[in-house]
Amino acid sequence: MSLGFGILGFLNYGPMSGYDLVKAFESSLQFFWHAQNSQIYLELKKLEKKGYIDGETVIQSDRPNKKIFSITEAGKRAFMDWLAKGAEEDATHFKSAFLMKVFFGGNMPPAQSADMLRKFKADCETYLEKMGETPDSIGKYGSNKEKYQTLYWQFTVDFGYCFIKTCIEWAARCIQKLENLENEMR
Amino acid sequence: MSLGFGILGFLNYGPMSGYDLVKAFESSLQFFWHAQNSQIYLELKKLEKKGYIDGETVIQSDRPNKKIFSITEAGKRAFMDWLAKGAEEDATHFKSAFLMKVFFGGNMPPAQSADMLRKFKADCETYLEKMGETPDSIGKYGSNKEKYQTLYWQFTVDFGYCFIKTCIEWAARCIQKLENLENEMR
DNA sequence: AGGCTCATGTAACCGGTTACATGATTAT
DNA sequence: ATAATCATGTAACCGGTTACATGAGCCT
Questions:
Q1: Tens digits of per-residue pLDDT, B77-116?
Q2: Which of B99, B129, B153 is the best mutation test for A, with the most CBs of A within 10 A?
Q3: What pLDDT is stored for residue A19 in this prediction?
Q4: How far is the CA of B63 from the C1' of C28 (A)?
Q5: Cβ neighbours of residue B116 under 8 Å, at least 6 residues apart?
Q6: Are residues A170 and B151, on separate chains, in Cβ contact within 8 Å?
């Protein structure tokens, strides 16, 4: 129910529609938690059922009607409890089908697995470039409270940046080793 | 069906039972792909149905009977196709409920989120220590073919090591910033 | 005329988790 | 005795993905 807490987190900043939430996830959490619109709408229903959020339909003439959700007191409590629980045990492990492929890379000739790693490295590099554009969008906010929030947003951006850089350096080392191996074999 | 390919990858090294596979996943892939025994047994059934593996019951007198699975030609083809496809687009993104918590850390006082980050850092450090023991177990193998395989195993271990180190350094920076903030406020 | 943005959803499916169930042998 | 290891599975559930459906208004 992590997605649910993510939604509660956004609604804790202020009321939003499902559509707004989809956008919010896309523009800020997508690096470590990307969510489909279908699932967000489903989760909103669940949260409403639990009494964590309240939905109110807003009739619009020029655009389709929308439903604006607000967090309830119970929702705030649930969200704060989740936050307060801190780092769970599983914070250190993650899933990667790509690393599984690397693990079994010995079934391919070095040239082929080197290509795979080069592709990965290139993907990381384009990702970094795209990232370089966003920091400004987080930018500077007015109040101190908002500045305090952005500190944490910066933390996650920083994490993403370091993570990708580590990936690039690692891939470069692997490629180097495979190239050396190819030269030795010649 | 990544888990399925992982199983095929192991069976490509040689026949194994479901139990053996559970152990194999635990001891080598667990950093980036941990799997429950229940799911491995389910996946084995699916793979058998698809004709990618063959199961043969072995009757044992001293221990419970077991079912030894071997990869078929079709299975080998499917596995090699998956490998050859190389790095998929999603190789760069991963999911982390912990980072989502950090993202919403602005809802807590700095002392509390610093604690969360300290806990995370400590978890990473114990993880690193545990890791320091394993490299030998991958160790040295006889044939050149085996040595070539272990190169890739070493790659994934190296990735894990760098990843955790990056996490520790990142957490330290975040904690530092939060501590500075607390001092300023005093 | 065609495509984009706003806006909300349903249905089928799949991958994975949690919990439970069984039962023999071997080591401490 | 009892704990661990060997060995295989089922059932309920949940979180998430893919694909599909609808429809109005705005921009080019």
A1: 999 999 998 887 677 778 899 999 999 999 999 999 999 9
A2: B99
A3: 96
A4: 20
A5: A86, A87, B101, B102, B105, B108
A6: no
Cβ partners under 8 Å of residue A5, min gap 6: A78, A79, A82, B97, B100
Sign of CA dihedral A96, A97, A99, A100: positive
Query: Helix A37-50 and helix A2-13: axis angle, to 10°?
Result: 80
Rounded CA separation A172/A11 (Å): 42
Domain boundaries A2-85, corresponding CATH code: 1.10.10.10
In which band, very low, low, confident or very high, does the pLDDT at B134 lie, cut at 50, 70 and 90? low
Please check the confidence at residue A82 and state whether its pLDDT lies above 50: yes
- Among chain A residues, the shortest Cα distance to B117 is held by A87
CB within 8 Å: B29 and A119? no
Question: Where in B26-175 does DSSP place strands (E)?
Answer: 53-58, 66-71
The answer to whether A164 faces chain B, any CB pair under 8 Å, is yes
Considering CB atoms only, which of A34, A119, A155 is closest to B102? A155
| pLDDT confidence of residue A136 | 47
Question: Contact B53/B69 with Cβ under 8 angstroms?
Answer: yes
Using CB atoms, pick whichever of B33, B115, B167 lies closest to residue A95: B33
DSSP state of A114: H
| Domains of chain B, residue spans | 2-85, 97-185
Q: Which residue is nearest to nucleotide C10 (CA to C1')?
A: A38
For β-strands A66-71 and B53-58, DSSP reports them as: unpaired
Give the burial string for A46-64 (b: 16+ CB within 10 Å, else e): ebbeeebbebeeeeeeeee
- Out of A89, A104, A106, whose CB is closest to B151? A106
Q: CA–C1' distance B22–D8 (Å)?
A: 12
Distance CA B53, CA B39 (A): 16
